[in-house]
Each structure stands twice: as C-alpha cells, then as structure tokens.
C-alpha cells in the first residue's frame, strides 16, 4: 500500500511520519484490498488548544474512498484516533462484503435445490429476463422479523400484500394470509400459535 503524507500549517518530523506510516500499514490486516492511503496533518485546526492538532486519513479501496479524522492536543493522539476510526470503517466494509457473499451462496444453494426438485425455471424477482418454455419460479428474499400475530396483521394491512411470513414469539415461522372473504388465515406449525 502506498502511503502519502501531507502537512498543512504544520511541520512534521521523521518520527511522527514513521509512527503514522506504521499505524496505516497495520490497517491492511482489516482489509487486504487497500490501494493507497493519504494522511494529512493540520496544525491550528481549532481555536481550542486541546483540539488544535487535526489528522485526516484517506484510504482508497476498490470502488470507495474512506475518510476518518480526529482532533486532539497532539498529532500522536490524533493519529491513534483517526486510525481507530478507519479500522472500524474497514471492518464494517469487510463484514458487508462477506455477508453479501454469504447471501449469494445461500441463494445459489436454495436455487439449486429447487431446480433439482422440478423442471421449472428459477428467476430472481428483480430480474427482467424472460424465460420461454417451462414455468417460472420467482424467488423473493426477505428478512424474517420476530412479531406477534396482531403486529403481523397490521403490517399486512399496511403493505397491501396477500401474505406475510414472520417469526412468532415462540421463535417458529408463521404465515399470515389474506382470505377471499377479507379475513385473515394463519399457517403455523402445531402447538406454536400465540
């Protein structure tokens, strides 16, 4: 990772530059896709003497630029604070990337199981591709939210859908659906209705 150091209204000694570079090099263990980093030292950033030293860290990863900054009474403390903030941002970014990858794996496993069980074509709900020949199975993914039956009925009334899958208070999956007569029906495993 290439590290660039800049100073605004400040003189940076070699020890401080080395300290900051070492801190930034340690960021690569939180995200191995770091391209380059810039650290900016600014003196007199605030009129308050306890926060007059400001450090800004800018890190480039593919597709994003992350920025963290910290003001403190010394550059060393500000470097620590700015790099700690950057660590949190990099962890969050990596967690999102991993979670997205896991969600895709879960979907592909579910898709392959359904495809093996039938001769229907499977299409994601948000895709606009047309499939000729076989019938289509449109797959929609959604988060399961814990709620009781009354809350589920309110959600179903407000969103206008014909059914809602949710987790009840006992932790089992239920399906509340709108009947043709305007009432609601509840599909639930035995001995789990609240």
The CATH homologous superfamily of the largest domain is called Ribosome hibernation promotion factor-like
> Strands of the largest sheet, in order across it?
1-2-3-4
How many strand segments? 9
Shape: elongated
Low-confidence parts: none
What features would you describe in this structure?
The protein is of the alpha/beta class and 194 residues long. The chain has 3 helices and 9 strands, in the order βαβββαββαβββ. The chain has a 4-stranded mixed β-sheet, covered by helices on one side. Strands 7-8-9 form a 3-stranded antiparallel β-sheet, covered by helices on one side. β1, α1 and β2 form a beta-alpha-beta unit. The longest helix has 43 residues.
Task: Give the helices and strands, then pairings.
Layout: E1 2-8, H1 14-25, E2 36-43, E3 53-61, E4 64-72, H2 75-117, E5 121-124, E6 136-139, H3 149-159, E7 163-167, E8 173-178, E9 184-187
Parallel strand pairs: 1-2, 5-6
Antiparallel strand pairs: 2-3, 3-4, 7-8, 8-9
Can you give keywords for this protein?
194 residues; alpha/beta; SHC Adaptor Protein; four-stranded mixed sheet; three-stranded antiparallel sheet; 34% helix
Summarize, please.
Helices cover 34% and strands 29% of the residues.
